[in-house]
Amino acid sequence: MKKVQLNPVGWMSQLSQIEVSQLQDTAHSQLFHLFKNCCLAVLNSGVDEDNFEALFAPYKDFNIKLVRRERGVKIELVNPPDVAFVDGELMQGVHEHIFAVLRDLLYMGNKYAFLKQNAPADGDSITDMVFDMLRHSNALEGNDNLNTVVCWGGHSINQTEYKYTKEVGYQLGLREMNICTGCGPGAMKGPMKGATIGHAKQRYKNGRYIGISEPSIIAAEPPNAIVNELIIMPDIEKRLEAFVRLAHGIVIFPGGVGTAEELLYVLGILLNENNAQQPFPLILTGPAGSEEYFEAIDDFVGATLGKAAQAKYQIIIDDPEEVARCMRGGFEKVREYRVAMGDAFSFNWSLRIEAAFQRPFIPTHASMSQLALHHQQSPGELAVALRQAFSGIVAGNVKAEGIAQIKAQGPFSLTGEAELMRRIDTLLESFVAQHRMKLPGSAYEPCYVVKSE
């Protein structure tokens, strides 16, 4: 039996005795089981696998324990994966990520009762919680420089697209911009990898590679090795809010249904009339050959949310330098607006996010079938329903609880207005045809069926 004890790092290195006791009290809770699985995923960083069962199967004897010490708490790993070690020593980045999981799931989980009925429910309280979690992770420190670019895109992309994400990251890095992604592989890793080279060439010493994940997806997208600040939000909605409030601009690369969900989320927020004056640089970009992909996305947005939504972003094909220049120009407008509003540079308080975008959506066969997929509602309301539909498909594709439901009860059923359902089906079929639902080499079995009313 292999055992490894880890000394605490970062903020978790100084805890009171009460805080240590509270952490130890979680040892037999559902939250601790979630913590254990997230730690195992972190220890498998770099493994090319998006099936949680295949990822966890070889480690049935893995365990994790909290060891009390006077000044805090150590973590003991029992039979951890060898891939996390170099010559018998745990990689420093993985070590830091393990304590980030401890901070966000157990410490903050206790504070906000993530798995209980009294977790924050009203909009202002949720935003305060998102702020508090980002503050505890030190993500807000250094964010005053107005240089954080959130990059979204698929974990299942081809090599041409992956190289392009690196080139965009490189151009952003040359302009001393920092990168925030979903922390996984593919379009989440490429921009960080490119930015490290750009930062090195500029001798930029404060390179930040922020990865924001959530417990149910981290097994499918373990943090890549470049992430130097890992944050795990309790659910997808709080993860998305953390992205948009931390970001000074967003770049979206080709991706699948998860990327479409993210785009619908930010568009739904920007369509809110309270955000009409809010400058928010939003660029969709990809290499030559990705034109068809972005045309399909743009057509879908136009047909569902309208021209007002299309006006919120620009599409740039095969021009990384132009992406970086446009983003830099957009930051100046953000600066002017934040100064005029008296808003913080580190956290976008003035962005209005309606409760419908904040409340957790739990994908089940019942909730998916009851989504309001029709045009007899505002574009913002339709954006909520479409995001939830795509979120459910992500769950059915890669999340443990979603996969279990599909196995037990068959595919989720999406039902709605005939023309809208046709457009949804066409878009999803294009993702399947382009192998954007699963990593290359794995056959995709749809977790959904699309029906017209």
Automatic annotation (TrEMBL):
<dbReference type="Pfam" id="PF03641">
    <property type="entry name" value="Lysine_decarbox"/>
</dbReference>
<feature type="domain" description="Pyrimidine/purine nucleotide 5'-monophosphate nucleosidase N-terminal">
    <location>
        <begin position="4"/>
        <end position="112"/>
    </location>
</feature>
<dbReference type="Pfam" id="PF11892">
    <property type="entry name" value="PpnN_C"/>
</dbReference>
<dbReference type="InterPro" id="IPR052341">
    <property type="entry name" value="LOG_family_nucleotidases"/>
</dbReference>
<feature type="domain" description="Pyrimidine/purine nucleotide 5'-monophosphate nucleosidase C-terminal">
    <location>
        <begin position="332"/>
        <end position="450"/>
    </location>
</feature>
<dbReference type="GO" id="GO:0008714">
    <property type="term" value="F:AMP nucleosidase activity"/>
</dbReference>
<protein>
    <recommendedName>
        <fullName>AMP nucleosidase</fullName>
        <ecNumber>3.2.2.4</ecNumber>
    </recommendedName>
</protein>
<dbReference type="GO" id="GO:0005829">
    <property type="term" value="C:cytosol"/>
</dbReference>
<dbReference type="InterPro" id="IPR049788">
    <property type="entry name" value="PpnN"/>
</dbReference>
<dbReference type="InterPro" id="IPR021826">
    <property type="entry name" value="PpnN_C"/>
</dbReference>
<dbReference type="InterPro" id="IPR027820">
    <property type="entry name" value="PpnN_N"/>
</dbReference>
<dbReference type="InterPro" id="IPR037153">
    <property type="entry name" value="PpnN-like_sf"/>
</dbReference>
<dbReference type="InterPro" id="IPR031100">
    <property type="entry name" value="LOG_fam"/>
</dbReference>
<dbReference type="Pfam" id="PF14793">
    <property type="entry name" value="DUF4478"/>
</dbReference>
